[in-house]
Amino acid sequence: MTSIAERPDATSLIAMLRDVACGLSRSQKELPPKYFYDRRGSELFDAITRLPEYYLTRSERALLDCWSGPLMSVLRPAALVELGAGSADKTRLLLDAMVYAGRAELYVPIDVSAEFLEEAAGDLREEYKTLGIEPLVGDIADPLALGDDLPAPAVIAFLGSTIGNFDPPAAHRLVRNVAGAMRHGDRFLLGADLRKDARVIEAAYNDRDGVTAEFNLNVLRVLNRELGADFDLDAFEHRAFYDRTLHRIEMHLVSTHDQTAHIPGVGDVAFAGGESIRTEISCKYDHASLSEMLCSAGLGIDRWITDAGSTYALVVASRTHGGKRS
Ligand code: AVJ
Fold first, then answer.
1. SS (H, E, C) 79-123
2. For residue 199, how far is its CA from the centre of ligand 1 (angstroms)?
3. What does each C-alpha distance from 85 to 39, 107, 152 come to in angstroms?
4. 318 CB under 6 A from ligand 1?
5. What is the whole-number distance in angstroms between the Cα of residue 282 and the centre of ligand 1?
6. DSSP state of 36
7. Given this model, what pLDDT does residue 6 score?
8. Which residue among 280, 283, 285 is best mutated to probe the pocket of ligand 1, counting the most ligand atoms within 8 A of its Cβ?
9. How many degrees, rounded to 5, is the angle at CA 96 between CA 90 and CA 97?
10. SS3 320
11. Do residues 178 and 156 touch, judged by C-beta distance below 8 A?
12. pLDDT tens digits, one per residue of 41-93
């Protein structure tokens, strides 16, 4: 069931049609992971973050529990910009620490969903009466449209290992966009999942309860509802594996037999039995690969924070020289 408010407007429907037509015409069919997240998909992802196998969220939360206080008290930012207005409780950890540090003026969450942003902003305005809350609607992959009057210094946070969804060229573009918006004294705070035993990573994307499988299939549900497509959800199976060479999880939906799906506005899409749609990649990093990516965007690592098992990293980076303006 869909509320009217959940219906995307005409422009985003056209963008979706274009993404779907493009992605499904490749030899390796693919769909952008952003279409997982309708209301049901967001709830399923929320359930994923609580699964015993899915260590990412817990690891990042533990690091933020320990480090948001110390980091904020050293950086003393006047503004926090958050890419993808993530999970509310992580945001609160950062905001509490920023307010406590004494210079907090403004919080700018950036997300594609205007509805989600306004909902979250309303709650935060109640809770943080002294803080300005100015959400920005936009795709985090685009250059940041931060105002020239953004209070300095600012921390730009990109948490949740969402960077993993971008392949190396796209991740590099994103980091370059962030660097381009940074001034002398601003900091980039990045949360990234680290390379580790492939069995541990694979288990996180193949949970016993099948929540990740439901989450994966949800993208077809979204296409059926939004585009009037006729994907048979029983005829696709969840598959997730770790590519040890590319250091990334690939999530696929595998067609159980020869079949054709019809998508109005796109046409017929034929699937051979065993053929798959790649629905997500989740790249894993280490110090060298992150440092190289940040470096080539003009950023240097100031702090590298991991847990005892090197499960997950919080990285603080700043511009190695210059800045947008001082
Ligand atoms: C939200 C992109 C970080 O890649 O681990 C979880 C999404 N996909 N289980 C991830 C996801 C399958 C998640 N990110």
1. EEEEECCCCHHHHHHHHHHHHHHCCCCEEEEEECCHHHHHHHHHH
2. 16
3. 15, 11, 20
4. no
5. 7
6. G
7. 57
8. 280
9. 95
10. coil
11. yes
12. 989 999 999 999 999 999 999 999 999 999 999 999 999 999 987 667 789 99
